[in-house]
Give the backbone structure.
Amino acid sequence: MISRRDFLQVSMAASALYGASGFGNWAKLAAQQALTQDQLLEFDTFGNVSLIHVTDIHAQMKPIYFREPEINIGVGANKGAVPHVTGAEFRKLYGIEDGSPSHYALTYDDFTALGREYGKVGGLDRVATVINSIRADRPDALLLDGGDTWHGSYTCYHTEGQDMVNVMNALKPDAMTFHWEFTLGQDRVREIVADLPFDAMGQNIFDAMWDEPAAEFKPYEFYERGGVKIAVIGQAFPYMPIANPGWMFPDYSFGIRDENMQAMVDEVRGKGAELVVCLSHNGFDVDKKMASVVKGIDVILTGHTHDALPEPVLVGDTILIASGSNGKFVSRVDLDVREGKMMGFRHKLIPIFSDVIEPDADVAALIDEQRAPYKAELEEVIGETDDLLYRRGNFNGSWDDLICNALISERDADIAMSPGVRWGPSILPGQPITREDIWNVTSMTYPEAYRSEMTGEFIKVILEDVADNLFNPDPYYQQGGDMVRIGGMGYKIDVSKPQGARISDMTLLKTGEAIDPARSYVVAGWASVNEGTEGPQIWDVVESHIRKQGTIKLEENTSVKVSGI
Amino acid sequence: MNFSRRDTLALGAGALAMTMLPVQALAATGDDAIAEFTGGAEVMDGGVTLTAPEIAENGNTVPISVEAEGASAIMVLAMGNPTPGVATFNFGELAGSQSASTRIRLAGTQDVVAIAKMADGSFAKASKTVKVTIGGCGG
């Protein structure tokens, strides 16, 4: 944790690394309750290099609401460490006043009230304005996209990612790495990448047959900016064929491959790199561990786990930047690089308050052009909600409860399972639910809602397996999703236990009876990674359910009891 | 003892001879196999590099590689498999490097162990947990 002084001294090799975060100024606006674009963008240009980081946009081109997690449990060495700090504790840690814009942007509580006051966030036309403003200060700033860009909306699905490719190209990134992009299928990924006007990179994207670097993706690239030779090394999501359907991209293998990362760092240093930046989709805790294992990375631009941190985290001599998700934030990192070393940094996590930041007219028009053919379908109102709908958090969010209810009633099941993905915007109470809103939380290329019989024993195996992907004390064994969402069944989880011993007291809610390991239950779910999964598409299941309900009212979900924190 | 292709699929590695030792494969446990290989000698940590994925993309074919400079042989074990013995790589005096790559099948989450017999008769060890998971639910 970097302290909140304007400058601080951290010993670094023979020199002194000093840094500052723009966060302090931003927090002071709390008292005024009046935010302007100039204030959000205020930045004393520093050093000789600027990095602009966006990540995990999940195809959200238009402003949305996005509630940050209430439950985000850290385990092992990361217990109680950021980003595993939420709500009031997070505000206390960073000196954020209650009710301030930063309270709304970075924490979960009072979300509805603050959302009504501060409005929506994100929108790539607003992101464009921020990028242009940074480029006005520093024309050769590097724009780096951490991936999960060509996934997550109605239009993205129907154009196979082309809408996002078109809009992102207009923002002129310099490089990008990948995760959900591969669920478009390897042929489509190759087709898009072949024409990209910027670098597609990942040192850990390998050819599956020969276990050697894949030809279509660079491990790294050099950029000469501000007289500095910068190497950007890509790191794609390591667990793609495990967390997502590997059969959609059978020619590729991933993994963390930190030994190859070290080899790439050594290689670029050998070729004269004065600054080494890693554009990563590892997830925050994995990056934190990698920063302690791999020597010689100056900056890791983290992604995947959707964390937004107002200050960099320092691991050894490496700074880690976390820039949120869904277009809600842009990070600006100015660096002072001299004599082949990073001497200091100045950083600002810029929240994209969509009512404050003026949209860029050209990008706004381009976005509307992508949406125009689908306008009627996108805007059709399916129902409305009396409750706040959100997803993000280690256990069930209200969107997931709604999806699980839809699966149980529409598919006549005892138990429902919904994947613990971290994407999906929020809907405030009283808002209509449009088809676009439903797709924003369900869109994917393997949406079939299966219905099958599972024994109680097998259901426990699934819960234990997913829990270990989240709560294994070694970050390298974490896949970065949240816990699988369960409907119709309650359970207890002790996150401090090893795999096989975390889950207990599984109860079928409709009868109140304990789950029998030997008995079969009808389970409905979606997003299976298995090839040949059959069933209706999840967005149709959810739409049908919402239509029948008219207005969504959810009961508070208390079916998961968590201990061992 | 039958060593089928699915148990071990050897890929090319420079100048080495790979032997499947029946005696090792017959050992009931990984610890027994290690004891037979080392003759009960002390095994030190370090000196062997074992590269394996943290989480297997496909438990049926997990790429691993081993390297131990100056080793005369490296034994690889999948400690949690019904038959823990995977392979022993023997390196002759003319071997350009003491390294090998192969793909192995893992019955479930377990430790993969590599034991190197060094030229001076000492033994060195490396171990790595490889998770085999059902998958899904990646954020």
